[in-house]
Structures are given as C-alpha cells and as structure tokens.
Write a structure and sequence with these properties.
Helix content is 73%, strand content 5%. The chain contains 13 helices and 3 strands, in the order βββααααααααααααα. The termini are far apart. It comes from Nocardioides humi.
C-alpha cells in the first residue's frame, strides 16, 4: 500500500510501506522516472512500427496481443522487432545503473565502466571466447564476466594507495583500457577472416543480432542483479557520507564496496556479451538523470530509466533516422563524445 507524504516544506515525497519494508522517493524523482518511462515506451513503439514493412500502431498492438487478424505482422513484431526493442530498454537500464554505481562509489562523474576499462575488459574476455573457442552465448557471458572482473581487480590494485581515490582510479583505468584496446585489436587482426569480421561487427556495439535467447537470459540476469542491489542500497547510501562516517554507523565499507563493484561489472558484462561494448550510456545517464531529478547524489532509479530511454532512442536513430543503418554503438559514441568534452571542460573550470 502507498500514501503520499511530506519530508519537509521543500521536499514532498512518496512513501511506500508494505509489511516491514518502507521506501521513500522524492516526488520530483518519481515524476522524472514517469516521464522517462513514457518516452521510452513511445520510442519502443516507434521501433516496432518503422522498417521495410511499416505498421500502424493498431496492427502492432494486435500483433502483441495475439489477435488472429494480425497475420504476418505478428511475425514481424514478435519475432523480429520486439527482441531488439526490449533489449535496448533492458540493457540501457543495466548500463545506467552500472555507471551510477561506479560514480557513486568514487564520487566522480567521469567514473564509468567504459572510461575506467571495465567495458574493454569484458570485451576482451568475450573476444577471447569468440576468437579462440567460438563458444556459445553462455560461454560468451562467462568470458565477458571473467574479463570484466579481472580488469576491475587489476585497476583496483594498481589504484590502491591506503585506499582508492576517484581521480587515481580513473587515470589507472584509462591506461588499462588503452592496453586492453591494443590487445583486442591484436586478437582481431590474427583471427580467421570470417571470425574477425564477426568480432569487428559485434565489437562496434550492435543490437542487430539480438534474439529472444539473449533478451531472456540477459534480462533475467539484469533483474537478479538489480534485486541484489536492493540489499546493498542502505550500505551504498552510507558510503556516500564517506568511509569514516559509514563505519561509525556500522557499515562494512569494503564488503559493500566490493559487492557493488562485482554487481556493476556483472551488469556491464551481461550487456557486452549480448550486444558488444556500448559506450557512454553508463557515463552520461547517471549525471543527466541527477540533474533532471535534482538529487544531491547519484541515484540508481533515475539512471536506469534514463539509460533505457537513451539506448532505445539511439537504436531508433541507428535504424531509421540516418542515411544508412549503423550499429547503435556508433550513435552512442558520437553523442557521448560531445557529452564527455562538455563534462571535462566543466570539471576543469570547476577545479580552477
């Protein structure tokens, strides 16, 4: 059951109580998530309607609800277009949450899996499976997870100096990412031609080959990881106060930090295994969502909603709004690159 409440004169909030659980959201955060949800649904509906076989919204609805009058439209919508549209939403949310986790832990807006090398590590692990083993999707997920965790361990140890500082972590992560980029290029160059072509297309970050197996397995994994974050949420909020204050309230800081890093890496690896490395969504979504919701720190729910909308919109652009069809990763790189330049200039001005 739920009821609206008020935290203070300037911060109206929605409070939900069920059994022994109590959740509280600021009203502005709820409104931002609702608007982003509507935009995401609208964008996904457009993805289902547009294409070489255009459909009206009524025929898309008929196909989704199993109307026998839908005919061939059901094959187009359910079998061909729905997996890609749903994958964009689920994987975008996963990237948004992953970026929010790392930016919250380091308290630095530049800390995201693609900047500090974790995406490159997951890509390297999956690439080893593709080039050397030619394994199944499950093996691809395993390779991406092992590569991401190994990279996170290396970056964490190299950045450790009586604790981990956000700026040092980012510099070390960029260096490791560059080295992994060279390793990945070497793997592709030395692979057989057909394998190299497959790896190059997948490495650009594309949802084009996404089917129901990737959506179901990847979606189930993302949901399990998000459920695990619910248990970590109190500890993460305490970490935002600083390690000393968190320890004073009984929080096991290192255990919470390691669990959050493993969860963030697993979210990135799940997306990478299914669609390849998709850059800049994890970087941009948490900070833009924070500004929209006007929250004092990075929060997970707005980042997830904005990540889902960003990837759905980028995939719609990649499919239908450009002169040629392109991988969605190319669109996110172009848009995210401009955002990164703006973010760096803003940080330099703020520190000077």
């Amino acid at each position: 059951m739920s009821r609206p409440g008020v935290l203070g004169p300037a911060r109206p909030a929605l409070v939900v109580r069920a059994g022994g659980l109590s959740l509280r959201w600021r009203s502005r955060t709820v409104a931002v998530c609702a608007v982003l949800g509507v935009l995401t649904v609208t964008t996904s509906a457009a993805s289902l309607m547009l294409g070489e076989y255009p459909l009206t919204l009524a025929r898309v609805w008929a196909a989704l609800t199993g109307d026998p009058e839908a005919g061939f439209a059901r094959v187009v919508v359910v079998e061909w277009r729905s997996p890609r549209a749903l994958a964009a939403v689920v994987f975008g949310a996963a990237l948004g949450v992953s970026g929010a986790l790392f930016q919250s832990l380091t308290r630095n807006p530049l800390a995201s899996p693609d900047i500090i090398g974790l995406s490159a590590g997951s890509y390297a692990g999956a690439l080893v499976v593709i080039v050397l083993i030619g394994g199944s999707y499950a093996q691809l997920v395993g390779g991406a997870l092992v590569g991401g965790l190994a990279t996170a361990t290396v970056v964490y140890l190299l950045a450790w100096r009586h604790g981990v500082q956000g700026f040092r972590l980012i510099i070390v992560g960029i260096a490791v990412s560059v080295m992994l980029g060279s390793f990945n290029a070497w793997l592709v160059i030395n692979a057989r031609l057909e394998v190299a072509v497959r790896a190059a297309v997948w490495g650009a970050g594309s949802l084009g080959g996404t089917g129901w197996p990737q959506v179901l397995w990847g979606g189930a994994t993302v949901l399990l990881l998000l459920a695990a974050l619910v248990a970590l949420a109190p500890g993460l909020r305490q970490l935002e106060l600083g390690d000393d204050a968190a320890r004073a309230t009984g929080t096991r800081t290192e255990q919470v930090r390691v669990a959050a890093v493993v969860t963030g890496v697993a979210l990135t690896a799940t997306v990478t295994a299914a669609a390849g490395p998709i850059a800049f969504v994890a970087l941009a979504a948490p900070q833009i969502a924070r500004r929209l919701a006007r929250t004092p720190g990075v929060t997970l729910a707005p980042a997830a909603f904005l990540g889902a909308f960003m990837l759905a919109a980028a995939d719609l652009t990649a499919q239908h709004l450009l002169p040629v069809v392109m991988p969605v990763g190319v669109v996110t790189v172009v848009a995210g690159g401009a955002y990164l330049v703006w973010l760096i200039v803003r940080e330099v001005r703020r520190r000077s």
